[in-house]
Amino acid sequence: MRNWPRINPLAGAGMVVLLTIALVAIFSPLVAPYDPGMPDLRARLSPPAWTAEGSWAHILGTDHLGRDILSRLIFGSRIALTVGFGGVCIAGTIGVFVGLVSGYFGGKTDAFLMAVVNTLLAIPNILLYLTVLAVFSQSIILLIVVIGCINWTAFARVVRSEVMSLRSRAFIENSTIIGQRVPVMLFRHMLPNVFGSVIVIATLNVATIIILEAALSFLGFGVQAPTVTWGGMLADGRDYVATAWWLACFPGVTITLLTLSLIFIGDWLRDVLDPRSNG
User: Fold this and answer.
1) CB 160 within 8 Å of CB 106
2) Rounded to an integer, what distance in angstroms lies between the CA atom of residue 40 and that of residue 65?
3) Which among 78, 92, 251, 271 is placed 20 to 30 Å from 218, CA to CA?
């Protein structure tokens, strides 16, 4: 019987952070103390509550329009998680399918699909994102679809390499001999054997996409106002770094905590699902 690694402290802390942010995102209308888009110029640029001039009415302070930072962080978590997990679902679906087909059939099919992958890898992804988002009207749905349709190459390469090694296994050869259909071979025999690697890549890719969404929103190509995003909050705070540090600090810390939690969980899952683990 396999001895699965225990949850290490970093992965445990990551799970706590991820679960907390997910619950906050789900129940944001109930948790947020204020409307995130409601300005209050009388409370403009109020510092955090624990500072000398701060007020406990706004625990993390307010921005240049008097909007509550904590409420905006809470609502911004919805966009970060939605784009992160939505983009990974699309990217994983495309990448896993391409990897399965490429690795199983080989030959010209493999050469063509890997040429597509290498072409995408040769072009800086940020250029593709900016080009597409600049041409079309920007929305959260478009952002998720664009990220998913460009970010699938990592899934394809890993799945392809594992499928190519699986083709020589006895159970695959036996299934071929008895005339199993290709869809059955791919999705019943191949996919379960690569699913562990897919889960690990997906976990790490969520962190990558969250950072990407924040970067695009910071540059003005992501989800547009009045929708609250952490990248948009960073953009709002860049002109006030010297006088109101909390505008950019708290969104940056939140992005860092969430991405680190996903990386720690992904590293732990890699140890758990690694077929070469002892046990």
Assistant:
1) no
2) 6
3) 92
- Per-residue pLDDT tens over the stretch 171-193: 666 766 676 777 777 888 788 88
Residue-wise over 22-51: b if at least 16 C-beta within 10 A, else e? eebbeebeeebebebeeebeebebbbbeee
61, 239 contact by CB (below 8 A): no
User: Cα separation of 95 and 155, whole Å?
Assistant: 5
Query: What is the DSSP secondary structure assignment for residue 54, as one 8-state letter?
Result: -
Q: Which two tokens stand for residue 261?
A: 């939690």
- Evaluate if pTM is beyond 0.85: yes
The tokens of 276 are what? 């070469």
Question: In the predicted model, what is the mean pLDDT of the chain?
Answer: 87
232: CB partners within 8 A, 6+ apart: 76, 217, 218, 222, 223, 225
17: which residues sit within 8 A by CB, 6+ positions away?
257, 258, 260, 261
**For residues 203 and 266, what is the distance between their CA atoms, to the nearest angstrom?**
5
User: Which tokens go with 70?
Assistant: 């904590």
Residues 192 and 159 sit within 8 Å (Cβ to Cβ): no
- What domains can be seen in the chain, in order of their start residue? 9-31+65-273 (1.10.3720.10)
Report the DSSP beta bridge partners of residue 68: 62
Q: Are 228 and 70 in contact (CB under 8 A)?
A: no
pLDDT at 33: 92
